[in-house]
Specification:
Number of strands of chain A: 1
Number of helices of chain A: 4
Largest sheet of chain A: none
Radius of gyration of chain B: 21 Å
Order of helices and strands of chain A: HHHEH
Number of domains of chain A: 1
Radius of gyration of chain A: 18 Å
Strand content of chain A: under 5%
Number of strands of chain B: 3
Helix content of chain A: over 70%
Order of helices and strands of chain B: HHHHEHEEH
Strand content of chain B: 5-15%
Largest sheet of chain B: 3 strands, antiparallel
Low-confidence stretches of chain B: none
Structural class of chain B: mainly alpha
Oligomer: heterodimer
Strand order of the largest sheet of chain B: 1-3-2
Largest interface: A-B, 47 and 40 residues
Low-confidence stretches of chain A: 110-114
Distance between the termini of chain A: 56 Å
Shape of chain A: elongated
């Protein structure tokens, strides 16, 4: 039983590390900040979350498990907020580079003020 | 009554997190719990319904499923050799049906962590939520999907 938990934990660790790696690859490969935030917020949060979920399975300790699960919760609460702020900042900043956007209804309806 | 239950739960949580069930630590936890309860006093005005809890559970489950799907989808996009062919980024204005700050914030956070969408901004009059989409289809399809999915569920939780 303990072995099973540890193997499952290792599996989660590898999956989490894989998603984190893919998030990093996405940040390098995608063309502009907005598309990069997709990779960083989603794949990044899932990667970090899976690694945190692996911790209780490997540690087998109630207090460690509780803290790890709270960690996942806070990760899921804070990641979208930071992604949102970065995305908004990139659209409000004077030097916006050349974002690759095919349809932009925000631009059409108003210029957001900082 | 509910405040007492919540207070005891908070103290136990405090002891579990600090991994220390000694009397001084429990007393410290009780102080923190009292502070938190005093801070939350106003939110206890309306009673909690079990129907709401079920809606919250449903929302949490569908959120976890969507989160995994979205990570897998981003991973697949990232690994495509020809990025320009699969990327169709767009910013859509989504007409908000929910009105309160808590509902809008919850919906925006859910949108950011679900497949191919990232909330960017809320209009000043809070009628529009601007969403960045990684691979856009049509505006109508996008709006319909959100309205029938998360927006309805968020409304059930907060209703």
């Amino acid at each position: 039983m303990e072995d099973l938990a540890i193997y499952l934990g290792c599996l989660l660790l590898v999956a989490g590390a894989g998603f984190s790696l893919l998030a990093a690859v996405g940040v390098v490969r995608l063309p502009d900040l907005l598309t990069r935030m997709h990779a960083a917020s989603k794949a990044g949060a899932v990667g970090g979350g899976l690694i945190l979920l692996a911790v209780p399975l490997v540690a087998l300790d109630a207090s460690v498990a509780l803290r790890a699960i709270l960690g996942v919760l806070f990760l899921l609460l804070t990641t979208p907020v930071s992604a949102h702020l970065l995305a908004r900042a990139s659209l409000t900043a004077p030097d916006r580079g050349t974002p690759m956007i095919k349809i932009n209804e925000l631009e059409r309806e108003k210029r957001i003020s900082p | 009554m509910r405040q007492i239950v919540l207070g005891v739960a908070l103290v136990l949580l405090w002891a579990a997190i600090t991994a220390n069930f000694s009397t001084p630590n429990l007393a410290l936890g009780a102080l923190v719990a009292l502070g938190a309860l005093a801070f939350l006093r106003r939110s206890f005005s309306q009673p909690l319904h079990f129907r709401k809890l079920r809606a919250l559970l449903g929302l949490s489950i569908s959120f976890c499923v969507e989160l995994m799907l979205s990570a897998i989808r981003v991973a697949r996009v990232v690994l495509t050799p020809d990025l320009d062919r699969v990327l169709r980024p767009a910013i859509f204005a989504f007409p908000l049906g929910v009105k309160s700050d808590a509902e809008i914030a919850t919906l925006a956070n859910l949108i950011t962590l679900t497949p191919g969408t990232l909330s960017v901004d809320v209009s000043d009059d809070r009628t529009m939520l601007y969403v960045h989409v990684l691979q856009h289809t049509t505006r109508e399809a996008f709006i319909a999907e959100l309205q029938n999915g998360f927006e309805r569920q968020v409304r059930e939780v907060f209703a």
